[in-house]
Design goal:
It contains 2 helices and 10 strands. The protein is an alpha+beta fold and 110 residues long. A hairpin with an 8-residue loop joins β1 (23-26) and β2. The two termini are 21 Å apart.
Length: 110
Amino acid sequence: MLYRVCVIFLFIAATLFNSYPLTSYANDGKNSVGVKIQLAINELMATVNGQKMTLSTPPVLLNNTTMVPLRFIADALKADLTWNTEDQSITLKYAGHTIKLSIDNRKLSV
């Protein structure tokens, strides 16, 4: 269940932050140089700004949807990602934006 929320959260975050599936670019508004994230389906190796890194979980294609590890993306963007066990929600803060998703809730807060 948490995996599904993370995937939905990442899709929304990618849209909000001008990121794109598999090769993503993001700029936090403070730096003139963005972050380039490259992932490959079913591969544990990824690159962030040309530096190779190992993923804990590879990106997968599930029902024509690309699912990527949200924690890795948040860390690469130097975004703040927190899990709240009390209300079963995830909060992502990046470049002055905040997105909050909850398990079993189709609504989100931006």
